[in-house]
Amino acid sequence: DGGITQSPKYLFRKEGQNVTLSCEQNLNHDAMYWYRQDPGQGLRLIYYSQIVNDFQKGDIAEGYSVSREKKESFPLTVTSAQKNPTAFYLCASSIISRGTEAFFGQGTRLTVV
Amino acid sequence: DQQVKQNSPSLSVQEGRISILNCDYTNSMFDYFLWYKKYPAEGPTFLISISSIKDKNEDGRFTVFLNKSAKHLSLHIVPSQPGDSAVYFCAASGRQGGSEKLVFGKGTKLTVNP
Fold it and tell me: Which residue has the higher pLDDT, B96 or A53?
């Protein structure tokens, strides 16, 4: 079955540690996105990528890093520089054609203690 | 600067009545608009979309209207059902800086009461 998979669903980390969230898709989509959801804030764009080895910052990229070494994979690293890392993180993918919908993973709830 | 705005954080309607969710955008480069439905602790799922060359798109109980001059769109659900209770996100896409960007509003929580 085709889809987009985020793992793990729940993640706990100590303050000051970097943590990497996984996002894999087998939909052959060129574009991939990372969003963060906080209560009352909707979905805010962290990073997005439209092609392998290329990515752009979204609206809240500070404290995050990404890589796009393979078309299927777009991991997000939450670094110790991110001041408020506890949130629900969503990964999405879409084909490049204009106006196509994005498909979302099930999300990762990151809690930093 | 919020480019996609959903000014109503919540909406409550009776089962069988119409639900109207509103969305405004500020950036003229957006030319495609989408509505997503989201349940807690899950990823959003696509509901319906509309291109800027149209002013209406209908799919079953869901209709999206676009007023390009007012930079406003709305989602109508009729008749509303209790299973429609969820958070609805409006999203807009367009080419910016050579890349296709997808921007979301803050969402509106819809509650349909039996």
Answer: A53
